[in-house]
Amino acid sequence: MLSIMLAARDSKNLASFAVGLEQNDQIEMVHVDSAAKALEMVRNQDIDLVVVGEELADMRPIEFVSQLVTIRPMINTAIVSGLSPHDFHEATEGLGVLMQLPPSPSTEDAAALLGKVDDLSALLGRPKTGVAKQ
Amino acid sequence: MVRVRIAIPSEGLGGLDGTRAGHFGHCDVFTFVDLEDGQIKEVSTIANVEHMQGGCMVPVNLLAEHKVNALIVGGIGMRPLMGFRQVGITVYHEDQRAEIRPVVEDLIAGKLLVIDDNQVCGGSSK
């Protein structure tokens, strides 16, 4: 089972992406709209992956991930961002972001992200989650 | 008897007379220097694993599995630094010399400093 948090002020732009994830019965999802709620939740629950929308209610996404990695560095992240790949890399260097997602990410983007999660599991020598196959 | 294993991200074949790698995640090998009561007892190397975007916990996991106690880096990002701290590996900072041996000798002599949060690489340090 893969536990995914969607952290976004407005989840409308993530609707297709979320559907792509929810089709998978190996995934459980929670949604929060603020960094404060997200940071509180990761302190108390096992979360494997946090997908951050373009906006949060109380904090810029990259600042949120900067705080997240100091609390729970083992959690993987993906961020929705319209920055160019170069600018995104510069802005997030050192934060170990697994994937940049485009604005209004699609079901295909969800599948690509799950593929990266599985690739990472293989590099860690852990059993593949299997989420990328469904 | 106090045993300590030091890891140094290294280029090429590594080893005590080898050269350090500037980016720990992209190094060819990790040189391990095993100390007993502050004396070098054994030097070995292990290959690094493939690097992928967002995969900075992979070397953290690798070094933790190999019972590393201390890591010497020239630079490191915030996430892997926090990961190393979480698994109990102390990260030291030295970004001036490329040679492995003098840096290890300085660590043994207590001359290297533990890396500070504001010394991390990347946008998160700004």
Named CATH architecture of chain A: 3-Layer(aba) Sandwich
Largest sheet of chain A: 5 strands, parallel
Round the Cα radius of gyration of chain B to an integer and report it. 13 Å
How many structural domains are formed by the residues of chain B?
A: 1
Briefly note the CATH topology name of chain A: Rossmann fold
| Strand portion of chain B | 25-35%
The oligomeric state of the chains shown is heterodimer
CATH class bucket of chain B:
Alpha Beta
Task: State the helical fraction of chain B.
Answer: 10-25%
CATH superfamily of chain A, called what? Response regulator
- Most strands sheet of chain B: 6 strands, mixed
Q: Regions of chain B with pLDDT < 50 over 5+ consecutive residues?
A: none
Structural class of chain A: alpha/beta
From the N-terminal CA to the C-terminal CA of chain A, the straight-line distance is 13 Å
What does the overall shape of chain B look like? Answer: globular
- The overall strand count of chain B is 6
